[in-house]
Amino acid sequence: MIDIQAVDHIGIRVADLDRALAFYGLFGFAAEHRAKNDAVVVIKNRHDVEINLVYNADNDNAGKNILIDVAEKYPGYTHVAFRVGSIAHAVEMLREKNIRITQGPVSFGRDGHVSVFLRDPDRNVIELRGREEDLSHLGGVERYEPEN
Fold it and tell me: Distance between CA 113 and CA 143 in Å, rounded?
């Protein structure tokens, strides 16, 4: 067995580095390092969560995320989920910044977690996940029940 202890970083391919830096900056990420020999900028937040922005996308697939927005189901990573301290605060901030929530707030199962899903400017899916709290002032929580 290989002893994996944590996720070290997430690599996200983007088309426009400045646009991606501005978007992820809304979540507290800032540039730490720019690779000299590759199209990669390492960004981190105050909790040391690391994303590698790979800024060499050259095809926007007609504005669609190839893993989510097309009928064919290709293998690959579909989203990243970040834990947040307050899902209510996250929803309020997303609305304040005019960032569209594509799903949620939604509760999956009985673990007490609530999530919202959104897209970055390159249509990469991000899940923000927090503990269940009173969201009635924001419209409440949808319960997800998978179909059998």
Answer: 11
Which pair of structure tokens corresponds to residue 36? 């000299």
Give the model's pLDDT for residue 107.
86
Reported as a single tens digit per residue, the pLDDT across 106-126 is 987 667 789 999 999 999 999
The domain in which residue 16 lies consists of 1-58
Contact assessment for residue 52 and residue 9, using Cβ atoms and an 8 Å cutoff? yes
- Contact predicate 141/133, CB 8 Å: no
> pTM of whole model > 0.85?
yes
Q: How many CA atoms, within 13 angstroms, populate the side-chain half-sphere of residue 109?
A: 2
CA distances to 40, 85, 129, 131 from 111, in Å: 36, 16, 12, 9
Same domain, 92 and 129: yes
Are 90 and 47 in the same domain? Answer: no
Q: How far apart are CA 115 and CA 48, in angstroms?
A: 22
DSSP 129: E
Rounded (10°) CA dihedral 109, 9, 39, 76: -40
